[in-house]
Structures are given as structure tokens and as C-alpha cells.
Design goal:
There is one protein chain. The chain is of the alpha/beta class. It has a single domain, classed as Thiamin diphosphate (ThDP)-binding fold, Pyr/PP domains (Rossmann fold, 3-Layer(aba) Sandwich), CATH 3.40.50. Helices cover 41% and strands 12% of the residues. The protein is built from ten helices and seven strands. The protein has a five-stranded parallel β-sheet with strand order 1-2-3-7-6, with helices on both faces. It has a two-stranded antiparallel ribbon with strand order 4-5. The longest helix has 25 residues. 49% of the residues are buried.
Amino acid sequence: MNDQSEEATRGLQEKARRVRTHIVRMIAGAGSGHIAPALSCADIVSALYFSVLRLDPGNPRWEDRDRFILSKGHGCAAHYAVLAEKGFFPLEVLDTFCRLDSILGGHPDRLKVPGVEASTGSLGHGLPIGVGMAIAGKVDGRAYRVFVLLGDGENDEGAVWEGAMAASHYKLDNLIAIIDRNRLQVDGWTEDVMNPEPLADKWRSFGWCVQEINGHDMNQIVDALHIATATRERPAAIIAKTVKGKGVSFMEGSVDWHFGVVTAEVATRALRELEVPDRGTR
């Protein structure tokens, strides 16, 4: 268990709330974006960036930094929000999301966005990229850790399991996979599209240390991340049980909001639930 104080936990919860407000405003302002997948992982990325990852926003390519890969690249609004909150670029840049000539596209681009380690969006690629980074860290004698956030529908991709097998074979204890288990993907419920269960047992059978947690409980998230980073001789996986659209009641658990259009009226309703005065898109 970590020794995180109640004040620290509240601080992370407030960061996650801010991240969710950024997500709503960004996507409403752009008239485009995957809102529900971003909302479901807001707590996870907030815990990572403000409690766990070793980073230097002033030196995004610091050689000993921890690496984070958002394999579910369509959820990039959450990633952009934490990067801005962390100081990798000004918060005002979030207003340009998905607009012409913006660095913030509908999927993350490592050549444009400070703090982005991999250009993702074609599902199934993030974990194999993370395996390569983790192997490189071992070969180079670096102490950095590699964290990969996957969608649960992404487990349909064979490349995920090739990466999982390789990570176990090479005993990559500097690699942590986090599965955003919100049980919905673009075509519907994961159990209907391609039933992934028993998901935890599948990861264990590939030689990973596996934990299952509530992906919206900050203490559980932070505890699990500390346990994962302390694991030795094998990679670690965290299956975070989440709710798609978390934080906005009328989006929660609805496949319709995977890529739903966020109008000004919808944004106002959502921001009201997040207890933020409506100031337009920002």
C-alpha cells in the first residue's frame, strides 16, 4: 500500500476533474473527438502524471524519463489535457484541438506534441512499441519505466498478445500495461463483439503479474501502480475497471458517446455536472 495522504488523494481527484472539463471543452470547441473513451481514462492518466511518472516538462526528451504510450490513441483528449496541466505546453493550446495547423490532432503525433512518445491510433501497436522501448532501456542500462494504456476492445488485436508474449519472454519488469476496462468499444459491448473474458487469466497465462482494480478509485490506482513498478522478473498488467463516459451521467455506459457530437448545449450540461461554471468551450 502507498502512504498517500488524504490531501494528496483529493489533489489527484481535482486534477482528474480538471482533465474532464478540458476534455469536454476541447471536444465541444472542435465539434469532433472521442469523448467517452477520454473520460473513462481521466483518473488513470491523472494518477500517472501527477503521482508516478518521472518526467521533466522542460526537457521532454530527457533520456531517463519514464515513457507513457497511449495505445488507445483515440482517447488523446485526456492525454493532451494532462500534458498541458503538467506544463508540457500552455493550457491555451488545448483550444486548438483538431483545428487546422494545430499540433493537437485527433490522434497523438510524437513529432508535434511535446511529451508524446508514440504516434498511436491504429490499435494494437502501443504495447509492441512499449516492448521495444523497455528492451532498449534494459540494453542501455537505463532506469526508466514504460507504461502503456490500452483500451479493452484493443485486446481483440493479435499484436497485443504477440507483445505480451515477448514482454514475458524477455522478463521486462520495466514495462507496465494498463487496460482501460470500460466494457464498450465502437461497435458495442466488448462481450458481444469479441468476448475478452477471462481477461485477467489470459494476461496471467502470458506470464504477467496481474492486478484488477477500480479504475476510478485514486487510492487503488496509485497502489496498483506502485505494486506494478516494484514487480521483478516479469511485466505487470493492471486491469482497471472503468465506466465509459465517467463523470458525465448521460454519457456513462453508452456506446453512442464513443464519438458523439458535443454541442454547446451538451457541453453546458456536462460542465454543470462537473461543477464548472459554463464559459463557452473554455
